[in-house]
Amino acid sequence: MRRFPAEWEPQSGVMLTWPHEDTDWADQLDRVERLYADLAALIGRYEPVLNVCRHPEHAAAVRARLAAAGADPERQRFGLAPSNDTWARDHGPIGVRTHAGEPLLLDFRFNGWGGKFAADHDDRITETLSEGGLFGETPLEPVDLVLEGGAVETDGRGTLLAVTRTLVDPRRNPGLTRETIEQMLAERLGIHHVLWLEHGAISGDDTDGHIDTLVRFCAPDTLCYARCSDPTDADFDALQAMERELRALRDPQGNPYRLVPLPTPAPVLDDDGERLPAGYANFLLINGAVLVPTYDTLADAEALDTLGQLFPERAVLPVDCRPLIRQGGSLHCISMQLTQGVLS
């Protein structure tokens, strides 16, 4: 029986796919590369970082960025693969443990969130890295199912949480019913209890409602979630409907979950006045720390305090994610943890 580990379990590293001049980051490339370098240096204090670069010249430039940021070179690894974009959460490998406890990487399909954006290079990144030996002896298993890492949350005990429309979607998985997808999740991920949500979204999100922007497991019995208490907010109705759904969820033993709300930051707007997808559920758990996206709003402090109480044994470290949300995602979206045993 396979098991899909929770994010709070031991990791062997975190994967970052770096931006470059042929991505949508081109008009703010220097700013976002500085964020990536600082983030890689920060993660490197706790565990290795796999930096995915498009070619050797790109890797050399990334090394220089990391050195300038004070990153420990012993914790920085490099892989080469062409890329369309940088959302490693959605094109990176998903790790499981086999019945023998060994790591196994799954290579699900990625089609740019239902064909919204080009993804031909991104869909091949995991296979390219595996062929290049970046995952050591860990086997890679291709899966003919479009599944983005940001679309699924697990408690590490066989329960999975997802928003239905991000998996049961004719643009992602034409012809597949919810029941068929549940069967595939059971076979590939060892999932035996699926919690489907029909509501929930934040403004500016291109993913149709990835769960990692909305609700996260913090323990097998605890969910933290994006909550909106302002009836004039554009996201109020959807998040209120989601909150009602969360109250009705039950674990495999029939118990309700402990629900912990996260605040909604004040709206962060782009240059055209459009709202960007700022939210605190997009935090990243690494060995010994929780990295929390911040947006220079008053709600930042409350979010840091709440997550500190949920993860009292971890350092709580803010990461200014204002550059990231200009392209529709945040901290968790650009990163993918690699389960223990994948990176040597």
TrEMBL record:
Any GO molecular function: agmatine deiminase activity
Keywords: Hydrolase
GO terms of biological process kind: putrescine biosynthetic process
A Pfam family it matches: PAD_porph
Domain of life: Bacteria
Family annotation (PANTHER family): AGMATINE DEIMINASE-RELATED (PTHR31377:SF0)
Protein name in UniProt: Agmatine deiminase
Species annotation: Thiocapsa rosea
